[in-house]
Give the backbone structure.
Amino acid sequence: MSHTAHIPSHRKPRRSAPTTALRAGVAGGVLSTIAVAGAAGPAQAEPVTRTIEMPTITDGLSTAVAASAQATQQVAQDLRTQAQQNEAAASAAKAAKKAKAEAVRKAEAKKKAEAAAKAKAEAALRASRTQARTTLSAPTGGSPASTSVASSSSSSSSSSSATGSAASVVSFVKAQVGDAYVSGGTGPNSWDCSGLVQAAFRTVGVDLPRISQAQSTAGTQVSLSNLQPGDILYWGGAGSAYHVAVYVGGGEFVGAQNSSTGVVQRSLSYDPPSGAVRVL
């Protein structure tokens, strides 16, 4: 035995061939991969382009948009129409208000004018009656007492001389005593003053005017101191008389006085007339 047999060897143990071959293969593969990567390293990747397709507007959507636009136009037109109608209504209301105010003003003016005319007529009536009474009470060539006696005597004598047509007129008006007074009345049961006188003379064929103003000038003017039955008495001026009646003799007359008394027979002193006319 060698003297170095028990001394361990410092050589590396030999590896088996399969293990060495496996490692060489792995190393070769790694080097190949690195070589390939190095050769391809400088090249850059191409950018990826993606196309996005936008949806197209279909026919149905176009129709809806058109309908919406039409509806908007219609609403605008309706608003304009409503505004015009409101303006027209406001103008009409303003015109109506102005017309009403003008009508009220005219009505008030007319009412005032009528009131003034009525007051003037009443004043004229009072003045006429006062004048008539003054004329009748004034002396005419003798004392008031003698004048009154003469008048009464004349009236008494004339009352008994009513004949013919005059008597018919007197009989007619006396027959209406108690009837109602109605303005514009011409009988047979209601009268105004001139309607009664006209109807009385119509019974004897005399056609008198309808109103008192014309009747006060329809015949011959006679003195109140020389009255005869059938004479027409009037109150106010000749041609402007406001009341008429028929003298029936005995110092009395019959006339349609007013709505309170109706047709009455009264003494001349009850309401002295202004004058008289003789038709018959």
Q: What stands out?
A: Confidence is low (pLDDT under 50) at residues 132-160. The helical segments are 17-40, 59-137, 144-159, 164-175, 193-202, 212-215. The two ends are 216 Å apart (CA to CA). DSSP finds six helices and eight strands in the chain.
